[in-house]
Design brief:
single chain; 324 residues; alpha/beta; six-stranded parallel β-sheet; five-stranded parallel β-sheet; 11 helices; globular
């Protein structure tokens, strides 16, 4: 893993990217996106999808919504299972463990092992484990995130840590915010699990880690040195290691342009946008993040796969309109 993930150093500071985008969320996400255009170069070709050997799959809005499966969810797992195509679920929510997500999916009637789910919290712990095993870490997050770091051999130290990690912390209060700012202001390496500004809940949204990062920046003048989750490529590289595949053999399937599709561009890997969640067809035109393929939902993706011979049928996938 350490060979695939670059070291944490000063070159990873200052993650701002100047991207002209239509929506505030696109602009804010670009502030926290990893920009290193020398890492890869992506060739946009209709035949690229023929080389896909594994899928990265978003969860909420793509595979399920709230507590029910979306159309094609079960069929997608059946198809990929029969075809021998590995699937790794990805979620930016660092407040829960993979085991909790596995239980959630099991309650919907499908068996997905926790090892098939990679959260931004687990990815962050593994990222730091490859660089500073056993280090003292100030973890600002839920008890589940603290346990994730404990399982990876870290010592939680809020007084004299070597690293600062910020996750989605629903237990945060003013005392925690003050301590977080003190440690960041002191110049300690500062890592965030993901960049989301809001977390969707029943009836609307609650502030997510991105809002806290903006608070910290306003107080300290510092942005996170590294952001692990989507749309940054670190979590893709870790998923590739899990699947035993090269990054370029993967395809990201998701419903958000500024996380799922943006991550595909940053990695870079092929991307398939499903319209079963947040994104509407009209959003694609003005977004800087263009998917390689667009489907109504996972059911349409499965139908396209089944229309061909395994992955060879991928050339029949629906490309975005020429205007996008």
């Amino acid at each position: 893993m350490s060979a695939l993930i670059p070291p944490l150093h000063a070159m990873e500071r200052g993650l701002g990217g100047e991207v002209n985008s239509r929506t505030l969320s696109d602009k804010l996400y670009n502030q926290f996106m990893m920009k290193d255009n020398n890492r890869h170069s992506k060739a946009a070709s209709g035949s690229d999808f023929d080389r896909v050997r594994g899928f990265l799959l978003d969860m909420d809005g793509t595979f399920y919504l709230s507590d029910h499966l979306l159309p094609g969810a079960a069929a997608f797992l059946r198809y990929t299972g029969h075809a021998g195509i590995p699937v790794q679920f990805l979620t930016n929510n660092s407040s829960k463990s993979a085991a909790v997500y596995a239980q959630k999916i099991a309650a919907m009637g499908l068996d997905v092992p926790a090892s098939q789910i990679l959260t931004s919290g687990e990815a962050t712990a593994q990222y730091l484990q490859a660089r500073a095993p056993g280090a003292r870490v100030a973890v600002f997050g839920t008890p589940e995130l603290e346990q994730e770091f404990h399982r990876c051999g870290f010592t939680r130290d809020m007084q004299a840590p070597a690293y600062v990690v910020l996750g989605f912390d629903q237990t945060i209060d003013y005392a925690k915010l003050t301590r977080l700012c003190d440690l960041v202001r002191a110049g300690l390496p500062y890592i965030a699990t993901h960049p989301d500004f809001n977390c969707p809940v029943a009836g609307g949204f609650v502030p997510d880690i991105g809002a806290i990062m903006a608070f910290v920046e306003a107080s300290t003048g510092r942005r996170a040195d590294v952001v692990i989750g989507k749309p940054n490529p670190h979590i893709v590289e870790m998923a590739a290691v899990r699947l035993g595949l090269p990054v370029e053999a993967l395809c990201m399937v998701g419903d958000r342009l500024y996380t799922d599709i943006a991550m595909g561009q940053n990695a870079p890997i092929q991307t398939a946008l499903v319209l079963s969640g947040e994104t509407q067809p009209g959003d694609i035109t003005d977004s800087p993040f263009k998917p390689d393929y667009v489907f109504e939902n996972l059911a349409a993706l499965v139908a396209a796969l089944e229309a061909g011979t395994g992955m060879a049928g991928a050339s029949k996938f629906s490309k975005p309109p020429s205007s996008v």
